[in-house]
């Protein structure tokens, strides 16, 4: 049997408990050995439910465990960098949820710590390693859609609960940080370069101060990416990739179901009804399982992690540029 990477999880956050941990437990070389919460009872409850051998009542105890090789960090956004740094300094590799940080400067601090400690640190953009996205980029590279000229995306859900961490402006809440980061990272993934400039427009919730509706244009020189994200619209997500000879529709781009096949549609536009589209279907796959195993393989092989901090820095720079543009009313350079 292949050697397994032993993981500890910092916090009992929903994303971890409901999605990531069960998926990683299905991985070939991932083993979830410990979970920590500031509430020891909650840690024990989750550990029992998910058959995790160890439960800790503090994050410090987990980081001190010599039988933990790597940490998965799904803490709230403002705690991503501080606890990823502490994990790295404890000699643990770190897979940290997106967005990796609150600012570009914070990300640079994390890069410095990674270089100093020589551990692996990566951002958990699970979409970037899913087969449907790898295939979409392969189609673009092959010239199947002609020249890539535009990427258009929408990502939304409705949540106006002021007690939800996604709606707390002072700890990195709001639409752009929570979900706008996805169309940004995937536009960069498809164009395979950084945007030259960004234009942003956002509407803030009058009570919570978070951006509840944000739209942006990213200028890639050879093409553009346009997206809208919202925390107060009916749930919806879609991505359309437009080339000079055909376009690709990604049916469910971001929350790709782990229990059913995924599909993309390649269409030369000869029938505006969409009946000219050719469908490519991908076998059922859990993007969190893929992400965990690829990160673990990078540790074992001492190779680059799927989404390195340099990539995270690029994404953070675009996010900051969009926020600046919304204030200045001008194009801003990441």
How is this structure best described in words?
By secondary structure, this protein is of the alpha/beta class. The protein contains nine helices and 14 strands. Strands 8-9-10-7-11-12-13-14 form an eight-stranded mixed sheet. A six-stranded parallel sheet has the order 3-2-1-4-5-6, sandwiched between helices. It starts with a strand and ends in a 6-residue tail after the last helix. 47% of the residues are buried. The model has no long low-confidence stretch (mean pLDDT 97).
Structure summarized in a few sentences:
The chain has 334 residues and is an alpha/beta fold.
Note the main attributes of this structure.
8-stranded mixed sheet; 9 helices; 334 residues; alpha/beta; 34% helix
Distance between the termini: 45 Å
Strand content: 25-35%
* Biggest sheet: strand arrangement: 8-9-10-7-11-12-13-14
Shape: globular
In the predicted model, the low-confidence regions spanning at least 5 consecutive residues are none
How many beta-strand runs? 14
Summarize model confidence as the mean pLDDT.
97
Q: Order of SSEs, N→C?
A: EHEHEHEHEHEHEHEEEEEEEHH
Classify the secondary structure makeup into a structural class: alpha/beta
What is the helix fraction of residues, given as a range?
25-40%
Rg: 20 Å
Ordered list of secondary-structure elements with their pairings:
Elements: E1 5-10, H1 14-24, E2 30-36, H2 40-49, E3 54-56, H3 59-63, E4 70-73, H4 80-89, E5 93-96, H5 104-117, E6 121-123, H6 131-141, E7 148-158, H7 175-191, E8 197-204, E9 211-219, E10 224-230, E11 232-243, E12 247-250, E13 262-267, E14 278-282, H8 287-301, H9 309-328
Parallel strand pairs: 1-2, 1-4, 2-3, 4-5, 5-6, 7-10
Antiparallel strand pairs: 7-11, 8-9, 9-10, 11-12, 12-13, 13-14
């Amino acid at each position: 049997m292949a050697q397994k990477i032993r993981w500890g999880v910092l916090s009992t956050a929903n994303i971890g408990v409901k999605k990531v941990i069960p998926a990683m437990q299905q991985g070939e070389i991932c083993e979830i050995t410990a979970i920590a919460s500031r509430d020891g009872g909650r840690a024990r409850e989750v550990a029992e439910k998910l058959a995790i051998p160890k439960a800790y009542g503090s994050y410090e105890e987990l980081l001190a465990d010599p039988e933990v090789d790597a940490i998965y960090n799904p803490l709230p956004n403002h705690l991503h960098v501080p606890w990823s740094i502490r994990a790295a300094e404890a000699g643990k590799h770190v897979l940290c949820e997106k967005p990796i940080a609150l600012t570009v400067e914070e990300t640079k601090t994390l890069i410095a710590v990674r270089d100093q400690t020589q551990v692996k640190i990566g951002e958990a953009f699970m979409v970037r390693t899913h087969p449907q996205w790898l295939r979409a980029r392969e189609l673009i590279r092959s010239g199947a859609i002609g020249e890539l000229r535009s990427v258009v995306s929408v990502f939304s859900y409705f949540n106006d609960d002021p007690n939800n961490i996604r709606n707390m402006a002072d700890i990195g809440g709001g639409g752009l940080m929570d979900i706008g980061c996805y169309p940004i990272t995937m536009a960069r993934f498809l164009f395979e370069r950084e945007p030259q400039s960004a234009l942003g427009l956002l509407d803030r919730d009058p009570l919570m101060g978070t951006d509840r509706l944000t739209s942006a244009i990213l200028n890639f020189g050879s093409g553009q990416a346009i997206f809208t994200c919202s925390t107060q619209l009916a749930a919806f997500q879609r991505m359309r990739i437009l080339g000079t000879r055909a376009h690709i529709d990604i049916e469910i781009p971001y929350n790709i179901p782990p229990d059913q096949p995924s599909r993309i549609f390649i269409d030369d536009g000869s029938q505006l009804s969409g009946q000219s589209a050719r469908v490519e279907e991908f076998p059922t796959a859990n993007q969190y399982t893929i992400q965990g195993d690829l990160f673990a393989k990078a540790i074992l092989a001492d190779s680059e992690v799927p989404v390195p901090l340099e990539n995270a820095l690029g994404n953070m720079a675009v996010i900051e540029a969009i926020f600046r543009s919304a204030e200045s009313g001008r194009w801003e350079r990441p």
